[in-house]
């Protein structure tokens, strides 16, 4: 990533309460797919690094004996803890406010480590090497993201599509043309090339799996507004005293796009890359 951007603790400031409602869910079947791929049996320990409000960790909670979520945002950690309590799984989950760069943080050894659309915010070389050392023998690192290579039209669905291009233009009108991220900007976006980083850290693979998407989803204006405020580049704090004005403009735009206050959308597929912890030279010997 050709930028001088550095992480700061305002990256998702104020977004946690919007996240669960606003973000599109992962494709149905993600938990079943991982259970089969990794032969999970309700034992072992999972660490979700950059867990947000626990979206993925809580969907996998029945597959492990203990689930640990780590995130630097206090709002995200609080939301995850509330959701876990509501689901009755507070006793087998733990939520730790910490940056990934602060691991291992005395958290012990894990069977599986998950990064769900979070790895690009981290010091990737450092975190990958640290997480490798936190995995037990035969442990797996799982990188999860939306499938970016599919077209998700709304033909034959009952409501208009969410006007994402117009929303992006509106955000740019308020915050400028360069993507905001915390106190800085990301003129070149977030980095890719995870495969090189994981291989260099001592992982083998990957195995690639796709959980099919395409399921129809109905969204309201409130859902879409929550989605806007759940994003790092349009987090509520970035608008300062113009936050209410921005939300009013978003809602005007959405009313013009769909007077019924309903939108149709299709879920993206979910892409899974599974990396295995390579044995050390000593272990091989």
From TrEMBL:
<dbReference type="GO" id="GO:0032259">
    <property type="term" value="P:methylation"/>
</dbReference>
<dbReference type="InterPro" id="IPR051052">
    <property type="entry name" value="Diverse_substrate_MTase"/>
</dbReference>
<dbReference type="InterPro" id="IPR029063">
    <property type="entry name" value="SAM-dependent_MTases_sf"/>
</dbReference>
<feature type="domain" description="Methyltransferase">
    <location>
        <begin position="47"/>
        <end position="139"/>
    </location>
</feature>
<keyword id="KW-0808">Transferase</keyword>
<keyword id="KW-0489">Methyltransferase</keyword>
<dbReference type="Pfam" id="PF13649">
    <property type="entry name" value="Methyltransf_25"/>
</dbReference>
<dbReference type="GO" id="GO:0008168">
    <property type="term" value="F:methyltransferase activity"/>
</dbReference>
<dbReference type="InterPro" id="IPR041698">
    <property type="entry name" value="Methyltransf_25"/>
</dbReference>
<protein>
    <submittedName>
        <fullName>Class I SAM-dependent methyltransferase</fullName>
    </submittedName>
</protein>
